Amino acid sequence: MARPCKVDTVQFRRRLNDQERAILLSAGAGCLTRGFRDLLAIYATLHNAGYRPDSNILDWIVTKNTGQ
After folding, report:
1. CA 21 vs CA 12, 13, 28, 42: distances in Å
2. C-alpha distances in angstroms, 58 versus 2, 15, 46, 62, 64?
3. How far apart are CA 50 and CA 64, in angstroms?
């Protein structure tokens, strides 16, 4: 059973499946830590541009690219 979410968490530990590991390694040029941090930076940029988790990312990108 997973622990409840705490907003003051300082460590994030979980098992990665092969796909998740491959994504982080790719994003970080072979470094899981760098990949994780780079994905956080990407999300921060998207969030600042108006993306929200309840949005469909592909629809949001199309809308941004077509200026609608």
Report:
1. 15, 13, 11, 17
2. 30, 27, 12, 6, 10
3. 10
Question: What's the pTM value of the predicted model, to 2 decimals?
Answer: 0.77
Rounded Cα distance between 38 and 29, Å, is: 10
Cβ-Cβ contacts under 8 Å for 19 (sequence gap 6 or more): none
Name residues whose C-beta falls within 8 Å of residue 18's C-beta, 6 or more positions apart in sequence.
none
In Å, how far from its chain's centre is CA 19?
Answer: 14
pLDDT one-digit tens code per residue, 23-61: 999 999 999 999 999 999 999 999 999 899 999 999 888
Q: Is the pLDDT of residue 15 over 90?
A: yes
One-letter amino acid of 21: R
pLDDT for 39: 96
